[in-house]
Amino acid sequence: MTRRVPRWRELRPLLQPRGLELDPVKRAHTLHDLRAAARKRVPKAVLDYVEGGADDEISLRRNRSAFERVEFSPQVLVGGEADTATTILGERTTLPLILAPTGYTRMMHHVGEPAVASAATQAGIPYTLSTMGTTAPEDLRGDNLWFQLYVWRDRGFTKDLIGRAQTAGFKALVLTVDTPVPGNRVRDVRNGLTLPPRLGLKTFVDGATKPRWWWNLLTTEPLRFAAIDGDGSMAPSDVGEKMFDRNLTWADLAWLREVWDGPLVVKGIQSLRDAQRAAESGADALVLSNHGGRQLDRGPAPLELVPAVADAVGDRTEVYVDGGVRTGADIAAAVGLGAKACLIGRPYLYGLMAGGQAGVARAIAILHEELARTMRLVGANTIKDLDRSLVRLR
Length: 394
Description:
By secondary structure, the chain is an alpha/beta fold. The chain has one domain (24-393): Aldolase class I (TIM Barrel), CATH 3.20.20.70. Helix content is 42%, strand content 12%. The strands form three sheets. An eight-stranded parallel beta sheet has the order 4-11-10-9-8-7-6-5. The longest helix has 33 residues, at 346-378. The relative contact order is 0.19. The mean pLDDT is 90.
């Protein structure tokens, strides 16, 4: 081989350094990147609250492993471009994705729910405010807001809460049905998690390495469950034990229909039997969910229920799946198996912890990009093209 001295015009393109991007949100290419950035921003107890499950966290792991069993069967030479748009409860959305309700949200980032709602509005997807949120329904703004409801023992308070959400312009009511008692969330118990966080020695030492988080906590409005009277200074388990109505039955859906005249979504369905009951009770949509593995451990992985439930009730009620979604390919798989849309909680909270509204927006954008790319690779030009000819569970 003959060697030669390279010319400058050949070297110059190789010697141009890439710009150094310091913002971890802008550097993020996957949700794993956002999670890594989040770990550097918040105390361990906060991250544990986001990531933890109940008891031995078997359901938590199964939620994710179900998606790892997905196999695509792509079709080629279909041409066209990927259109990720769909409709959810009659509203057009840019992709089949709903931001799920999460409690304690201002603990993850001092802006909290308003940052999430703004990112969802910007992206053109629904956002669900939790009853246990740290922003009151009256104080939230967004184009497609849903309100998640825990039914309280005090039905008068429950009715007032629904009325507040309706007056504030929320478009759908999401009834959570998998919390007759709180799950045993061992990480939170060991961390002594309360709202607001208590400054025990362990918490203080852990938080000392996250001064920005503490500064934002101490210089903004005190954390509280904003929809509830009082200062909200209690552990999650205390709320469930003292206030949630464990005697809720299917008959109560008829009562909810009387006090709420918009779309009704039932979240926490974990069997074909209950999916059929929800459809018969007039639910506009149901969410196959085990509460992110945070309630009953060893519950079914929601993704595995999708085909049978979609076949049984999909022509009467919209079917959503919640739990384990970490990529746009996961969304494509769930829709292909028969779901109308997916709900996510932890993925957007990683973004929120990493960088507030910009982080949530980046999490949504990553999922959107991955969904569009997966659709092109499997040969689906529209969301309706995603079906069981293209995806199966191994």
